[in-house]
Write a structure and sequence with these properties.
250 residues, disordered C terminus, mainly alpha, flat
Length: 250
């Protein structure tokens, strides 16, 4: 017959459990404290690195992107406040604010051409043309960071992916999967036809026409009927270069 443990045995087992629980909590606290100490050390080294390479961070876009990656690993956002330590040390808060303003200006200037959807690469090209007299070079990474700060204003600016390319949307247009597939298809030659959409995407005529009409209504497409084959072309300025046509107007 199995004997039940006595009161003394239960108390001993409970005390052992409490001991191991406290031991586990102490180990966890030690690890947390050690991580905090290491993080503080790394942040201090990051500040020293920023002071030493201040000019490189401001002038070299590749170096700047690598610096942002290091900051992200320790939970530091140099753009969080224009009045913070990092902004005063590097001046990059003002740099990205200025980029944001110029990006808005470019999107507004090109909207009559592209309906409010512009290729990120094209946007960066226009931005560099606009800033050609400035000392700091600008990369696509810089554009993306500046746009991410514009979203805080609720201004409708957003980066979307269409195939392998990124586009900046500056109007509150909702593009669904069908619209994105047509835009990706149009990247080859700048336009599509209803027949091409039906054939390449295996769609019905109604589905192709409906998606194209929506893109037309949103100002993202233009109609071209002047061809001998009688087929209507739907042109998409957002996938074509417009630097030469609008660069001089900004």
């Amino acid at each position: 017959m199995r004997r039940r443990p006595g009161i003394g045995g239960l108390q001993t087992a409970a005390a052992a459990r409490d001991h191991y629980r406290l031991l586990g909590e102490n180990v966890a606290k030690l690890r947390t404290d050690l991580m905090k100490e290491q993080l503080a050390t790394f942040r201090s080294q990051l500040e020293e690195f920023a002071r030493k390479h201040k000019n490189d961070i401001r002038k070299n876009p590749t170096f700047r992107a690598q610096f942002h990656e290091m900051c992200a690993k320790v939970g530091v956002d140099p753009l969080a406040s224009n009045k913070g330590f990092w902004a005063e040390l590097l001046g990059i808060g003002d740099f990205y604010y200025e980029l944001g303003v110029q990006i808005v200006e470019i999107c507004l200037a090109t909207r009559p051409h592209n309906g409010g959807l512009i290729n990120l690469h094209e946007l960066c090209t226009l931005l560099r043309q606009k800033r050609k007299s400035d000392r700091e070079a600008v990369s696509e990474d810089d554009c993306l960071r500046a746009i991410s700060k514009l979203k805080i204003l609720g201004s409708g600016f957003e980066v979307i992916s269409v195939g392998k390319r990124k586009f900046v949307r500056s109007v509150p247009t909702e593009l669904n999967k069908d619209h994105n597939e047509i835009l990706e298809l149009a990247q080859a030659q700048g336009f599509v036809t209803v027949d091409e959409v039906e054939r390449r995407l295996s769609w019905t005529s109604g589905r192709a026409t409906d998606a194209l009409d929506t893109l037309l209504d949103e100002g993202l497409a233009m109609i071209d009927d002047g061809h001998r084959d009688g087929k209507r072309r739907y042109w998409f300025p957002c996938v074509s270069s417009i630097s030469s046509s609008v660069g001089s107007d900004m």
